[in-house]
Protein: Nucleotide-binding universal stress UspA family protein
Amino acid sequence: MYQRKIVIGFDGSPSADAALAWALDEANRTGARAELVYADEWSAWGPATAGEHVDPAAGDMLRRAVAAARRTHPGVGVTATTVPALACTALADRSDRAGMIVLGTRGHSALAGLVGSVGAAVGAHAHCPVVVVHGDVRATAPVVAGVDDSPSAAAVLRFAARQAAGRGVGLRVLRIGTPDGRRAHAAPFGELVAAVRAGFPGLDIEAETVRDDPAGALVTAGDTAQLLVVGARGHGAVRGLLLGTVSRHLLRHAGCPVAIVHDAGRSGPVPRARRAPLVAGV
Structure:
């Protein structure tokens, strides 16, 4: 069960609706609360007094979304907030008080460009796991974890194992090997997998090494998965999976939701126009 809430980046677009639906199911499954966050980017760029005005249309949109969420998921505590800030700032700022951030891949207004610089900023700088919802959600498919020899590998495997065990499905682990095929890190990888097996004794785990085309291998794995889990920081072949062109390829083309997991204490500050106060809640 999560100790902190799930934060959903929401702008009323179909992509945000899909992210909200996924997040509500996750909250219902884990006992977490849910908070919809609308980033009012126009106020963030405007005069200091602009943030004092809340767009009535945005407020109505959030109230409707909260009411619908409470009807479909009556067991989940749902609230909504408008923040005068860039989307990446609003969400990253709330990540240190959240158990998870959930986003869609396509949006308008505050969440426009999530697959580009905004998505990269949220994924790279958040202090909690970030799930980007797109593609198909296959309830009976396995969870797939992509790891290398970076410090985030253990956190990625723990998160993926919890997701798989909680959903009652198997876990498939793909280790991205070194470009020259050396097996210098095979033993640590084996130890990590063994630790997950010990911690989740009833979980069906398959593990294999992939040395060529990490992005392609992960996208292919995502075609038959319900969740693809990777680290925010990597070494070698997976360095930049979420910070460069490979990351955008993964977020654009993976056939299932993608979870970005951070090694504890390694996230940095996100660039911002200004630190914005909370404006309104529902």
